[in-house]
Amino acid sequence: MKYVSPSSLKMYERNPEKFYVTYLSKAKPPRPPQLQVMAIGSAVDARIKAFLSDEFDLVELFESQVEKQNREWAWKHSEDLFEAYRASGGLSDLMQDIEHSVMAPAYEFDAVGEMEGIPLFGKPDMFWVTEGGIKVIVDYKVNGYCGASGVSPTKGYIKCRERDGSCKRYPQPSYGYMGGLEVNMGLGLDETAPDWAMQGATYAWMLGCEIGDPFVVQIEQFACRPSGVRIATHRSLISREFQEDLLDRYKNLWYNTDWYDERLEQLAAQIKKDPKLWDMF
């Protein structure tokens, strides 16, 4: 491996055999086909970025992120979710925020860096800097769209919007301001959504932040149910303790990437011949 990433760390911790076959095996089988649950998030991401920035052609970006077998379905369904985002007022709020960036917001870029000798890689959805010098990492999440019952917005949001423009706040957090942005100061992202915090902290490090530096992670969550979608904006901090522990987890992964397993090598070779065998994971 040349580097580690939030996705590889998550796989290593939750399914080490799949991690080995995916990242370490000599057979290097092709990645599993993209599922609809992943395609819908990539499709919405493409629509938002193409709307916000002239540097992207929607069709080109969409096709680069959504595999062929999912394109017809994802094009139709992502259009509805994007329109819900626009109608709710979430998109216009985001646009007003980034108007105050001291740099041109950056989209769709590879972030590569090191923390204490550990090479890291990620792909933030958006990055900008407030007039007060606070770095803001923005990520889009589509949750529950392909599930039978869907999901509720993750706790700790600062705003939750309906398609009709109505909006409510999460009842408990204590709000404050950083760099002119309203932030949930009472609940850290590591408390409400550790996987999101893993991504956000990693991206922040690769964008020049050290552990303990101030930065904000903003998640635009599409919380979907069969009855409709709600757009929850999360704008949170990540604790020093979580970041220190996260770096230790990356070290544990990086220093264990030289292991060899003959049984998993054989399995990887079988998957290379028959990709349907990915289903066993």
Features:
Lambda Exonuclease, Chain A; globular; 21% strand; 281 residues; 41% helix; single chain; two-stranded antiparallel sheet; alpha+beta; seven-stranded mixed β-sheet; 10 helices
What does this entry look like structurally?
With about 280 residues, the protein is α+β, with helices and mostly antiparallel strands. It has one domain: Lambda Exonuclease, Chain A (Alpha-Beta Complex), CATH 3.90.320. It has ten helices and eleven strands. The strands form three sheets. A seven-stranded mixed β-sheet has the order 1-4-5-10-11-6-7. A two-stranded antiparallel ribbon has the order 2-3. α1 crosses α2 and α3 runs antiparallel to α4. The longest helix is centred in the N-terminal third of the chain and has 18 residues. It is globular and about 55 Å long. The mean pLDDT is about 95.
Short summary:
This protein is an alpha+beta fold and 281 residues long. The chain has ten helices and eleven strands.
